[in-house]
């Protein structure tokens, strides 16, 4: 089990950057970690995920080339570097964790409370 807390959200103009952090209360080395987002009136969608070691990553087509997921297991933290932000990226971003890589990209067992990202045009 693990508890997750996201931070780093905020407001930024289109083309800007933000770096989200997801800090875990426990060690995350045994968990694949993912980022998801939910825009107003829309379903939660997958953004990116990284395997337990960080050696494998996956991105949604909409963010590939702009977002980078990374992790620092020594700090029990996963990051989402978001560059070239677009208004369409506006959403609440959630961190998720699961011991299975596949589930980490779909329905992780553990979730953070979310952090708001707003991108203005």
Strand content: over 45%
Largest sheet: 7 strands, mixed
- The proportion of residues forming helix, as a percent range, comes to under 10%
Give average pLDDT, whole number: 95
What string, H for helix and E for strand, traces the elements in order?
EEEEEEEEEHEE
Look at the helices and sheets and give the structural class.
Answer: mainly beta
Q: Number of helical segments?
A: 1
Low-pLDDT segments, ≥5 res = none
Q: What distance separates the N and C termini? A: 39 Å
Number of strands: 11
Q: Rounded to an integer, what's the Rg over CA atoms? A: 13 Å
Gross morphology? globular
Topology overview:
Layout: E1 4-7, E2 10-13, E3 18-24, E4 32-38, E5 45-50, E6 57-59, E7 67-72, E8 77-82, E9 91-98, H1 101-104, E10 110-111, E11 115-120
Parallel strand pairs: 2-11
Antiparallel strand pairs: 1-3, 3-8, 4-5, 4-9, 5-6, 7-8, 9-10, 9-11
Could you list some keywords that capture this structure?
about 120 residues, mainly beta, seven-stranded mixed sheet, four-stranded antiparallel sheet, 11 strands
Describe this structure in words.
By secondary structure, the protein is mainly beta. 3% of the residues lie in helices and 49% in strands. The protein is built from one helix and eleven strands. The strands form two sheets. Strands 2, 4, 5, 6, 9, 10 and 11 form a seven-stranded mixed β-sheet that branches. Strands 1-3-8-7 form a four-stranded antiparallel β-sheet, with no helix packed on it. β5 and β6 form a beta hairpin. The longest helix is centred in the last third of the chain and has 4 residues.
């Amino acid at each position: 089990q693990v508890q997750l807390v996201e931070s780093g959200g905020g407001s930024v103009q289109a083309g800007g950057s933000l770096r989200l952090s997801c800090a875990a209360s426990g060690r995350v080395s045994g968990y694949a970690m993912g980022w998801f987002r939910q825009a107003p009136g829309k379903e939660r969608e997958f953004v990116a995920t990284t395997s337990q070691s960080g050696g494998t990553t996956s991105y949604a087509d909409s963010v590939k080339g702009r977002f980078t997921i990374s992790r620092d297991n020594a700090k029990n933290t996963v990051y989402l570097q978001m560059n070239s932000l677009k208004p369409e990226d506006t959403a609440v971003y959630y961190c998720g964790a699961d011991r299975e890589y596949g589930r980490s990209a779909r329905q992780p067992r553990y979730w953070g409370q979310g952090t708001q990202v707003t991108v203005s045009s």
